[in-house]
């Protein structure tokens, strides 16, 4: 065997194999690699878009939290003011009720005192008439008795 011929045929086989590989095997492999590269690029782009969406969402959530906090603060302040107003209103109503009750008690006491004076006047008048009747040792008629009682009441 000739070494040159073997080497020559091996070279021809190598080139034919290289050409077949380049013509029939290599295009599907490069196509699959390119498709995979494109999918990876799309995945990375989607991940970047997801990150930016996440950052925007976090910013919106932070803004909503701040808005909710300020709204809560406003509502709490309004509730405190409303509560203080209700307490002041209740105090004012209680004060007016207390004043009304005190005035009513004073009026009732004055009326009771007036009734007691009137009763005392009647009793004093009766005692005075009885005393005068004993002194005079005679009975005074009813009309005169009523007139005397009225005069004594007026003087007392």
UniProtKB/TrEMBL annotation:
GO terms for molecular function: proton-transporting ATP synthase activity, rotational mechanism; proton-transporting ATPase activity, rotational mechanism. It is a single-pass membrane protein. The keyword DNA damage does not apply. It is found in: Cell membrane; Endomembrane system. Its main location: membrane. GO terms for cellular component: endomembrane system; plasma membrane; proton-transporting ATP synthase complex. Component of the F(0) channel, it forms part of the peripheral stalk, linking F(1) to F(0). The b'-subunit is a diverged and duplicated form of b found in plants and photosynthetic bacteria. Belongs to the ATPase B chain family. F-type ATPases have 2 components, F(1) - the catalytic core - and F(0) - the membrane proton channel. F(1) has five subunits: alpha(3), beta(3), gamma(1), delta(1), epsilon(1). F(0) has four main subunits: a(1), b(2) and c(10-14). The alpha and beta chains form an alternating ring which encloses part of the gamma chain. F(1) is attached to F(0) by a central stalk formed by the gamma and epsilon chains, while a peripheral stalk is formed by the delta and b chains. F-type ATPases have 2 components, F(1) - the catalytic core - and F(0) - the membrane proton channel. F(1) has five subunits: alpha(3), beta(3), gamma(1), delta(1), epsilon(1). F(0) has three main subunits: a(1), b(2) and c(10-14). The alpha and beta chains form an alternating ring which encloses part of the gamma chain. F(1) is attached to F(0) by a central stalk formed by the gamma and epsilon chains, while a peripheral stalk is formed by the delta and b chains. This is ATP synthase subunit b.
């Amino acid at each position: 065997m000739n070494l040159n011929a073997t080497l020559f045929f091996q070279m021809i086989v190598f080139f034919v194999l290289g050409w077949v590989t380049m013509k029939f095997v290599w295009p599907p492999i490069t196509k699959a690699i390119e498709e995979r590269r494109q999918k990876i690029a799309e995945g990375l782009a989607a991940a970047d878009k997801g990150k930016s969406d996440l950052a925007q969402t976090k910013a919106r959530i932070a803004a909503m939290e701040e808005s909710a906090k300020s709204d809560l603060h406003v509502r709490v302040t309004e509730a405190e003011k409303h509560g203080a107003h209700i307490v002041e209103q209740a105090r004012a109503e209680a004060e007016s009720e207390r004043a009304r009750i005190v005035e009513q008690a004073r009026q009732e006491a004055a009326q009771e005192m007036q009734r007691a004076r009137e009763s005392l006047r009647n009793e004093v008048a009766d005692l005075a008439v009885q005393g005068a009747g004993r002194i005079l040792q005679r009975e005074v008629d009813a009309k005169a008795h009523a007139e005397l009682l009225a005069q004594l009441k007026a003087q007392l």
